[in-house]
Amino acid sequence: GAVVSQHPSWVICKSGTSVKIECRSLDFQATTMFWYRQFPKQSLMLMATSNEGSKATYEQGVEKDKFLINHASLTLSTLTVTSAHPEDSSFYICSARDKTGPSYEQYFGPGTRLTVT
Amino acid sequence: GENVEQHPSTLSVQEGDSAVIKCTYSDSASNYFPWYKQELGKGPQLIIDIRSNVGEKKDQRIAVTLNKTAKHFSLHITETQPEDSAVYFCAASGGDYKLSFGAGTTVTVRA
């Protein structure tokens, strides 16, 4: 149980285009979903927190107009990187909190590798 | 905000030996301390966690200890195996459920 999926697992896009990444909780309802970015050989950095039906909360330094987050249901959150540039190339990982499970535990997705050319 | 420091950044151990990774945190309000294992190209996988009302927790070869007074917690892996080779991250979380991660430790188990 407690499986989180991400789609796509990897994507290559041209500079200036937008790309959408999906995060789904497959067997539980997620109260909250989190989006992280991880550069090579670095740690995970929280980008934003999204709650179903409400606006996402972004961490300091993360441009909310560039990284659009939509949490339309208790099982799906999407991250859209708008007008992508090579410096946005990174590993994007989502996590989800189970609405009914231990309140602190987060279940992580497998990540999405974004390469902007 | 919370600041988590993790040491060492790399750790090489002989198969069968123990590995210890240490973390310190800054926010006394933090009360949840998970440890994650991340393999190359994959998302982090929770291996063990501890709440602030517990001093130690063990799951087979893995144990975590927490010292709230000193604001530090440690991961202990005994009888290491080659498949334990990975990057390990500690994290801390408080009432807002946000996780602050340490910088990571690359563990290499030599056969």
Radius of gyration of chain A from the CA trace?
13 Å
Biggest beta-sheet profile of chain B: 6 strands, mixed
Which of globular, elongated, flat, extended, rod-shaped describes the shape of chain A?
globular
Shape of chain B: globular
> In percent, how helical is the residue content of chain B?
under 10%
How much of the sequence of chain A is in beta strands? over 45%
Which stretches of chain B are poorly predicted, pLDDT < 50 over at least 5 residues?
none
3D architecture notes:
The complex is a heterodimer of chains A (117) and B (111). With 117 residues, chain A is an all-beta fold. Helices cover 0% and strands 54% of the residues of chain A. Chain A is built from no helices and 11 strands. Chain A has strands spanning 4-7, 10-13, 19-25, 30-38, 45-51, 57-58, 67-73, 76-81, 90-98, 106-108, 112-116. In chain A, the strands form 2 sheets. In chain A, strands 2, 4, 5, 6, 9, 10 and 11 form a 7-stranded mixed β-sheet that branches. In chain A, strands 1-3-8-7 form a 4-stranded antiparallel β-sheet, with no helix packed on it. In chain A, strand 5 (45-51) and strand 6 form a beta hairpin. Chain B has strands spanning 4-7, 10-14, 19-25, 32-38, 45-51, 56-59, 62-67, 72-77, 86-93, 99-101, 105-110. Chain B is mostly beta strands. In chain B, a hairpin with a 6-residue loop joins strand 4 (32-38) and strand 5. Helices cover 0% and strands 57% of the residues of chain B. Chains A and B meet through strand 5, strand 9 and strand 10 of A and strand 4, strand 5 and strand 10 of B.
